[in-house]
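Our preliminary data section would be incomplete without showing what the modeling component actually yields. Below, a chain of 104 amino acids is followed by its predicted structure, encoded as tokens that our downstream tools consume directly.
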Amino acid sequence: MTAMEWPDESGPARFRHDDEAGSAYSPAMSASFDKVKKDAGALNTRERAKLARELIDGLDPVVDERVEALWIEEAERRYAAYRAGTMEAASGEEAMQRARKRLK
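Predicted structure:
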């Protein structure tokens, strides 16, 4: 299933279109999408990360504050372990490979 597709036929048909690159979006919105994508590409890394977070948060506006607090605690624990030398860092590529392997 590609982005913006519904697992059944309940979703709008306009979101079941794939472009040449395999992205699913409506041809009617492609001009605005392309402009936003181009503008986002001009942002620095920190700004793109912040924009990505805002967009992802917009997909699921329900935030469980307890879960957020637990993730912050976990991140702080891992960072402290890294700084203390008791945990090694992994590259983003290595971390993604491990995650993909676990999902198989």
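Residues 1-19 have pLDDT under 50 and may be disordered. Residues 13-59 form one domain. Preliminary results of this kind motivate Aim 1 of the renewal.
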